[in-house]
Structures
1.
Amino acid sequence: MPKYEPILLKNMLQPGYTGSLAEYERAGGYQAIRKVLGKVSPADVTAVVMKSGLRGRGGAGFPTGVKWGFLPKDYQGPRYLCCNADESEPGTFKDRQLIERDPHQLLEGMLLACYAIGAASSYIYIRGEFVLGAKILEQAINEARAAGYVGKNIFGSNTTIDIWVHRGAGAYICGEETALLESLEGKRGLPRVKPPFPATHGLYNKPTVVNNVETLANLPHILNRGAEWFASIGSPPKSTGTRVFCVSGHVARPGNYEVPMGITFRELIYEQAGGMRSDKKLKAFIPGGASAPFLTPDHLDVKLDFESVALAGSMLGSGGVTVMEEGTDMVWAALRLMEFFYHESCGKCSPCREGSSWLVQIMRRIVNKRGQLADLETLTDLCKNIAGRTVCAFGDAEVSPILSTLKHWRHEYVAMIHAAEAANLIRPEPVGAKQ
Amino acid sequence: MNVAVTTQPKRKPSFGDWLKTLTFYELLVGMKATLTHLLNYKPITLQYPHEKRLLPDNYRGMLALLRYDDGTEKCVGCDLCEAACPSRVIRVVSGEVPGEPTKRYSKEYYMDMTRCLFCGLCVDACPVDALGMTREFEWAVYDKRQLHLNKQQLLAIGDRSFPVREKRLELQHPNVAFFNVTFKHLPQKEN
Amino acid sequence: MPDQKPETVRLTIDGTTVAVPKGTLVIEAARRVGVMIPHFCYHPKLKPDANCRMCLVEVEKMPKLQTACSTPVAEGMAVRTATTTVDDAHKSVLEFILANHPLDCPVCDQGGKCDLQDFSHQYTPTTSRFTETKRIFQKEYFSPLIETQMNRCVQCLRCVRYCDEIMDVKALAPVGRGTMTEIKHFGPHELDCEFCGGCIQICPVGAITSRLSMYEYRPWMLKRADTICTFCGDGCRITVQTKGNELIEVNSAHGAGRNNGDLCARGFFGFHASSDADRLTHPLIRREGKLVEATWEDALEYVAEQALRLKLAHSADAFGGLITSRCTNEDLYVFQKFMRQVIGTNRIDSSARYGHLNGVQALRRVQGTHRWTIAFEDIVAANALLLVGTNITETSPITGLKVKEAVKKRQASLVTMEALQPAIDTLSNITNLALQHFPTHPAQFGNTVLGLTKAVIEGNLVDATLAQQAPAFVQRLTSALQGISWENLEAVTGQTRTQWTETAKILAGANRLVILVGNGVLRHPGGDATVTNLLDLLILLGKLDKPGCGLGPLAEENNDQGAVEMGAVAEFFPGPAPLDDQPVRDRIATVWREELPRTPGASLTEMLAAANKGSLKALFVVGENPVGTLPAEAQAAEALGKLDLLVCQELFLTETAAMAHVVLPACSYMEKDGTFTNSEGHVQGVRQAINPVGDSRPDWEMFSALSVLMGSPLEYGDAREILKEIRTVIPGYGLLGPTPTPPKVDQAVLSGYLTQGFAGDAATRYAVSQPRQTGDGSFTLMFVQTLFHSGKLSTHSKGLLQLQQEGFLSINPEDAARLDLADGGQVKVSNSRGAITTTVKIRERVPAGLLWFPEHFDGEAKQLAEWTIDPRTQIPYFKLAHVSLAKVS
């Protein structure tokens, strides 16, 4: 018996649960939408969600109800809901499980969100690599459509809500909401300049809400059990509800753990995930997916809520906790993440496009024993020049591994450079320095 | 202004003074250099053209076009020397190297040396060090049209003045590998 | 143009307070106070993309630096562009952009006019911290005219956005991710697009340059001359850049001219026509059957002598004159003055005869003006646009851009009646943007317009006040159209009634309705009737004299409009005023100090007939080539062969010039001063860019010299003196450049038309015209203008010849499949007049049953054309043929 009551993972934790429509309904599914449809006004649904304090689970942690409230009230044309299932953050794998094991929970959440914002069409933008997930979703939508839960006049009401699955083509950046919209429109997945925000000019220039899978999956439970119930879980008032944390790395039992927000990292790693995999001590952990800065064992007692983690100099992000044990080469770890960001930089804005390749080349040089002490300064400088000067948050994300490892483990870099100096390998000289 | 004038009492000439006056000593002192030269004569005028002066290291003589060690011309026809020249000595006509698509060179290169100040700004301006100032200065001619030099002549001057040549640019640093290269798979530009 | 005053916003930029309209971007507001914010990706024509991050500025109360190019101004905003933080951001962004840049400025054609170079000088140190290996793109062959060097690219995507947003061609796209992003075109072949050169012009660095002028210049060597393009009626401002006396490049500055800096392939790459090696450089005189070089004195004296002799022996009406509308207004004016005053005949004509007169005559008849009552700005601001037979992308590309802007940026409703199929292609296709498209057979434009008028009347969309003011007009039209059944119309045109009805509603609902008529109507039988009917449609909708509404016929040649206004046509004196207009006749006579000839004029076809009969003895031909242009049936060669004196003023030794007794080398538009009047009636200055090629002289100088030799001198010092005289004769020429307000509908003429003017030919105009029955095969062959050429002049341009070298037959894929024709295969095109063999090109935009052949290469092919002469307007039509096809294996 788990210590905390699972909410999102409750169904799939039942042995033999396949996620079919029948089983979902047996477990109390599609009750929230029935309760709401035609009986509660969309504005009231939004009010309930706002009251619950539900915050976006994709990374930024923006209050969901507030986001919905940004849609223009008197707009006559179509509005859209997009479910962001482009889960590509290294170390995050919660949405995948939510989709593959309990698709109807998500669909119900989407129906509720669509009803609240008045959208007749909604799209699930699913990561291209989730072949199975896309298939399961398609199947679930077909089931729901056959049952009259999705499509025209759902549940016999005069409301029309349709859901479509759109598979991505394998770009990390399409997890950024505006890039996702561009990609969904059939264009190149590049982030848009904000403002205007998707709430007013989103998909096809129409008001659009983009929500994460986990956010949407929470909705049926909030509407079933009430905003007060939800707001009482976690560490109110700011971080309410539970979160599915994806613990990976050098722990004994990696996996998804649904815990209320506000427990400490120590509890998550040592109690839930069974502690370290060997007798080596914990050296570092990433608290919220690859784009969150590294934290050290000193931060183990930080609470798992948005504010506390931010205060510790990182972010809760997408909830992917990656744990590294003593003996991990932090320079190499930073390079590994940097390689990922270099590969995934979309190339729209100059600092990120050129900076990521520059950073990765310096890092490779340091790891390959051709570094210089001056490189560390260049690294810091370049990172500062990228962060905050790009169109989307990718720029801030890509520098965090380097900046945080440089902050906490600078000595490892220095040691590596000293080794390089001892090896006395040829270093390139700058262009323009005439002999 | 009040200046106290004090008159110095007149000194009585000594015997030494008297002797100096008598023997024209001051005159002899003044003539010392002349008289020394009179005795050990050594002319300082060089007997040009039989004798030649030693030129200082930074001597700025005749201009020349240079080549790389594989014999290819350095000049890329960028016209920067033409732009830098204060007295409009240089005229460059640039174009694509025949048979080497997208590579730029100077199709024609002229220097009107009658106007040259030998200021060396063109050499400074050259981004590929294709221009050099030689130590040649014997360029007196009967017909000033002979000082209107073309590319072949300038290259020839370079050849005889700079026997030691540089390696090609792209072999000096990998990061300039993409500077003025040819792409054989492209069609030649039509002229 | 909407007149309401825009809201203004006050903000502070670097301490200076400025008031700008709401919605202005910070970067634009800064420019107003003289603060230049560095940028690459921003361009006033394009939507902000904010990808280069170069324009970061500090905005008070915003935590992060903001991009000035995407941030709209807000009331009370305080922007700082010169703080340390901002400077630091500029430096760092530039450092990133320069990291992978090859720094090959010495060999880059952009060096000297490069934004990246300028900003680097301003912001970065001379050495770089980047010691890693630079990213290198493999060089791919792009096109014979456009050179790319992707290593220099800063990925600002201006070219891609321009190609999509402005040109609607979408030929370019970024390919690859991150630092490996490069700009490429689609398909595994060299670039195939409209070749507008926009990407070259808009590239802030040297990544996309013109291969035509590659390595031939440095920006500081070039001399610039602002002049007007000669390749269509749009009248685009071009800046001709020359080195020495060599033509190097043509471009157009943003914000300059009617084209606002946009050009087409002809304008951008076509300039070499003037410096072609085949240009005539000396006068030629026929001696012993051969044309031999002669001096100007000999040639002119010979012409003067012969002309005087013939004038004595016969009458003044034994002379004729023919001039091309590519000439400047000054040339045209002196030409007609020479013919009317020195020779004393009205027998003159110009290439406006080929179709533009159809439009002008209709406008004069209905609204009393000879010019458009609209301007390009009205096209952009229109709510609804109707294009009839324009094929606007290929004939008037820049007017096309205005239409695209109206549709794409301002959501105007576009209705097209075109002999075009909406297909995505390498060229933009205006019908793709249309809300309603009527795929129309070239002979059915009149009937399709009838359907629309019928739908307007039957849909009760007729303006209420009109029905009261001109009941006779409305009733006559109503009864005429009631006599035509929908079934009949549908059967003939292939359109549906519902579409007409829908379209009528769109047009009636628009506040600002603009109709553009193109060569598909003007150069085909029934052209003037169709234009008049379209004007009737505007009247019925009550929109003819509304602001922002009107009809514009598109001229094919750059100065068609000027030729008519200068009176270089048989039926008009300068003005244009009809030959029987006594006040005008008197006014001109006082300026000329001589009586104007009273004999009737003669059009081109009449002159040819007269020459054939032997009553025309001498012909002055200026830049026209009737032998090369007209089909054999016109019997131009026979007619000209019978002349006693044929004088040609030409750039090249054309078919006509080869028959001449004297050939005088003329200057092209690059070598002379003057003015052109474009389609919309804007008189614009033409400025000399290079010295005359060889011994060539401007056309007016030759007439001036001849007049002196013939004893009644027309002496002018330069083109400006002629313009001065033109101003005294024609009121509209007081101002150069854009006319401040387009002419208004003349209410007197309009009411005259509504009471009785319309009635004369209402019966013929409002009757279904039946297609001509010929036994000549099932395909309709159209001789069309293509985007890459203009008349025969551009076939001397080496740049354009690389885009299109020869004639080919464009055919619909279905037809091609039916006849088993492959792209690039040979086909025999034949009818009772003859047969030719040519290459096939399969193009989806060609409607089924139609064939296109470029008129620029119609040498052999024109013998197939049907030759008809409009008995009323004397306009010859020869752009259509009925043919059958057979595959040649």
2.
Amino acid sequence: MIENKKAHKFGMVIDLDKCTGCGACMVSCMSENNVPFKEDESNKKDSITWMRVYKLTNGKSFPETEIAYLPRPCQHCGGIGDHGHSPCVSVCPATATDYGYDTGIVSQIYTRCFGCRYCMGACPYHARYFNWWDPKWPEGMENYLSPNVSPRMRGVVEKCSFCYHRYQLARERAMVEGREIEEMEYQTACTTACPAGAIVFGDLNNPAHKVHQIVKPDPHPDPMNHKVVGKSRNPNVFRLLERLGTNPKVYYMSEREWVRKAGDNYLKGEWENVKTHHGASSSHG
Amino acid sequence: MKIDRRSFLGLGLGAAAGIALSPVGVKLTDDSSIWTQNWPWTPVPEDGKITYDRSVCSLCPGACGISVRKINGRPVKIEGLVDHPINNGGVCPHGISGLQYLYDPARIKTPLKRNGNKFEKISWDEAISLVAQKLGEIRKNGAPESLGLITGGGSGSMAHLFDRFMGAFGSPNTYTMPSLESNLALTAAALHSADQSLGFDLDHSDFILSFGAGIIEGWGSPVACIQANASRRERKAKLVQVDYRLSNTANAADKIIAVNPGTEADLALGLCAVLLAKKQISTNTRYGDVNKFPFAAMLGKEYTPEKVAAITGVKAADIEALAMAFIEAKAPVAVPGKGRGDTGSLREFTAVQALNALAGRLNKKGGVFVMWPAGYLSFPENVMDAVAEQGAGKAKLAGSVNELADKLEKDGGLSALFIYNANPCYALNAPEKIKAAMDKVGFKVSFSSFMDETALRSDVILPASIFLERLEDVVSGAGLAKTVVGLCRPMVKPVFDTKHPGDALILLAQAMGAGMAQSFAWESYAACLEDVTEKIWDNLSGDGYVVIDDKPPVGTPATDFTFLVSAPKAALSNGEGEYTLVPVDKMRLASGSMTSSPFAVKTVPDTVLSGKYSVVEINPATAGVLKDGDIAFLKTAMGTAKVKIGFNEGILPGVIGMPRGLGHAFNNPYVAGKGVNVNDLIGPVIEPGSGLDAAFGIKASLSKA
């Protein structure tokens, strides 16, 4: 029952200067979402990690070397112009993945998926994973599985859902009590686990939410690139491959210029133009 | 009937119409879609009422509060407990994986007895009477001191209960595995007073000088330390990291001081010397009550910036600048303990603490707290019978667990050994030596929950319930500047036929009768806990934790520099080779006696573990003919291992960094049989005066495989 209310647009901002790369978000995600594990997980191409922490380096030699960790959940893209045509949603022949206009969350329905993997090819962020095998838990370990997320089977694609089941629980509670969902009521498992407090999650459409206050998303399309909507007006905040116009709802934040530059591929000299082009809409007031 | 063209077409059309109209086709399509959408082998977790229960994680000494989500009483998720005084909602990857330990394939499911090369299942009654009988014989022979105990340390009621057992039995031979806590306790004992420990007030310091401490990589109470680091920017607090590689902590630091591995103590003493020479010593402190002048003389003579520069590789001018930056900060603190802080020499720990003492940072906000034990436990007097009295007077066999292993290997000395919360056959350097030493002990009783390297070598196993199945008081320590007692509560009934080790100990003491039974006259461990924590039990059981103290202790403790003046020799890496191999702690890998969970191992990047290979970090500048990704033989005086080469710009040239916590050898395919145990390659170097294994690194060579 979607009433004529302003839709939510859930998103997060991750402070890469606070992230220590400890991996708590990855484990919290796996435990929350019944993600299985295999005997050998060192081949990262077939290792299912809805949340994956990448290591970035500035490429300089010691002692100028610097590293940064970049946690990468599903980016929950709004697609070009933020109209809900996410790269993966547009290519799915089974409507197994869809864009939630009331939440901005990109869903994945495992029983509809027949494993064509077009979405994996379409995703610029490698956020989607294919189940090459049926999940297998050591004897007895199935006892810890959560009923809120169905375990997947061989032959389907899975990915981060922004812990949608947590949204459902919070929404039901709020609905029964006849009120709106509160900011802290719906938080993803990675956000709550992070010991460094590097992840902030909330409604990007709600100016009262911390994520909105940090990101300050620009409501207007980028005048330089009309595909891009919701660009941050905070000079330290960026999105991955932002210029593609996928319009992710996961933002990153760093005071370090080389880290911000690592968020996209730039031709020689291009970065100098881009780095000053934050908050382009300041001309809009 | 003749089949002509007309009837053939008629029949054909009729059949086609019949098939099209019959439900069979639709039914078959429908069925096939149902069958292909049916995955009966995929588990369907049972749904039910959601509840949350509070407890404390005791996987490491961090003592974080946890919230366990349950469905119809079945635990499904562990999260950090919001508003807990230690971790305030945060949690580490190992704590979240707690439920995987519950159903771990390597868990010991019943009491076991060794029979030749195999274990056979026995009942608890049999197990207790078997151990009681063996121990009874030892006492009857009048050699109670020949019972040894190796534990993982700690200071809660379980540690006291084991001490009590050893006391009532009549043996002084209790040994603790090296840990940050044991190292800090030894440091306090050497410099200040026995029974004290050190807490570092990182939350309020504005200048943290870390001597290799992996502040965001598992040092101390890991979540509390990560939070202290995360708040640094808002507090405008600086972190200066002394390190030989770009650890995550070094990367997060404002400044990195690159030192040769193993020379941290020299740098700390060099800083002390600068402070003395520049008359920057705090005047309002009672530093150096004992041997202050010989210490000052030693510093002035042997630790001039030039001399220290030659040893550590840090420029003399940088040493002076660092010392001045430290003393000029408002609330500086120097933090010892490389990596997780469970390795290193007492010289290194005391040198860093001496710097804190000279700078007047003892018992100051944002400095180091010299703390007394929590003191909330009140055990009744131990009943000592004649045998106990006789054994209690005997001297300990050795000063440390490493010395004990040496002694046992050479000439034995113990007839029975208890092992609780410890996996020495994996966690100590040169585990093969430790195994050989263990084999010299006739009767080994393990209280392990998992069939790990040490449990595999025991004679009887009294399997312990894990923290999610037991009630226990958990005291913070681990270098925290506050003392919090948390209550670990059973979140689930024991999954297997295991017991609380406290209950096992009580049963055992009662089976032994006489004085021992009187010392353990409780009905159960639960009754014992309520009895001995009487002072705080109401709050502890009500709130789940009690903050004993979180303020700086009053007064300034005296500092005794005798140990440092005795100039204990720095342990040099032994053996030959062009490289120095050092162990590297990674947050995502548990090390020491704790094993990583399948989830934790899954998060380990392929630059640390690649298939069956440990990946070693090496600076490309000194890699010679080796290329990134090559398989190579890594050779030290202790052994050879096949490893994968991983180029890393962020490590000092000539140093090889190898991850700790890999190379387990027991039956859990998800976490064991992966990579190399770095301890296999490093030989212990016992530090005179402390008995600590001061080996940090060893000379090594590399050749392409």
